[in-house]
Every structure is written in C-alpha cells, then in structure tokens.
Here is the input.
Amino acid sequence: MKLIAYFVLSFFLFISAHGFSSERKKILVLHSYHQGLQWTDNVNIGIQEVMDSIGNRYELDYEYLDTKQNPSTEYLQKLVELYELKLEKEKYDAIIVSDNNALSFVKDHRDKYFKDTPIIFCGINHFKNEFIEGLNNITGVAEVVDFEGTIDLVLSTKPNTKHLLIINDNKTTTAKLNKLLLLDLENKYKKRLIFIYEEDQSIEDLVANLQKVKGDTAIL
Here is the structure.
C-alpha cells in the first residue's frame, strides 16, 4: 500500500494547486486493466480517499481498458474506435492513468482528445523518460520492482538454492517488461542459479508443476 500512499499524496498536491475554482471539475480515471483486479481497485481506493477529504468538488469518470484480459492487437484497435466515440464529446480538466498501457493510450491520442489536459500517472513499470516525451503538464509515481534484491535475499536465506522458478505470463506489458529484467539478471547469477520460466499455463497445469518442485528450488 506504500505506492498507493505516494499516489494519494501526489494527487492531493496536484488538485490542491488546481482546485481553487468553485466550478466542479471533471476528471477521467483511465485504468489499464479491469475493475475487480486488486491492483486497480486499490488505486481507486487511493483516489477516493483524496476525493472524500476535499468535498464534492470533482466529478470522476472511470474507464477500464481491460488490456490484461484482452491484450490482442485486434481488441486494442476496436478499443480505439470505441473511445473515439466516447471521448470526442467529453472535455476533462485532468486525467489519472494507472499502469503503462493507459499512459501509452493517452500519449498516443493526446493531441486529439487530451491536448493541454493535466495528466497524473501511477504504477508505471520500468519508467523511462521517453514514456512521457513530448508531454507537458504531467506528473506521477513510477513503480520499481527490485528483482535483484529479491534474488539476493533468496540466496542469503536459502544458500542451497540451485533453481529459480519464475511464474509469469508472457502476454501483458508488465510481464514482458519484467521478463526482460530477469533475462538481464541471468548472466549475473549464472554460476549459482538456473532460471526456469513457467509461462501462460492454466491454473491446473501450474499447480501440477509446482507439486514437483524440489527443495533446491525457489519460486518467484
């Protein structure tokens, strides 16, 4: 929840600077994933905590790109067509985006729908300046996962570990970026660990494979 706390603070400072007008402001909350996903729901909790603290001064529209369940190119194209109909009639005073796909969507379509609209982002994995290149009036919080520190902790607490079994999907943006980081780390640990990837498996197959795990294997 630390990340949510940072996001609440960042967003509170943002709206404090922009919320002196008595007119009710309209804010779009654009999520990369779907309602019901714990990460997405936690972000909404953080936003709502801020809104509850300042009274009825902001109107929130929530939109879910649902790209974790629907990552295909065909789906994303249809999604663009849908939002062309929805967004051409709307004018927002600010946009909150959670995770990489929502930020990419806003960047790709800013000139058409969000020109000069303030943007607040959170949960951006493997953040690089190029993610917001060309964008102005933008602030937010990046998400950093310390894989190297986690592996070092495994080896310090279980020094006999020889295999690192990594459970991952190879479809979502976050998973693909995480795997790139892990592939880079393989060279550092090649004398101590063999990296094994379990990807895109059904729950039944994954459970069956995990039941075969031996004592010299750690699971990430």
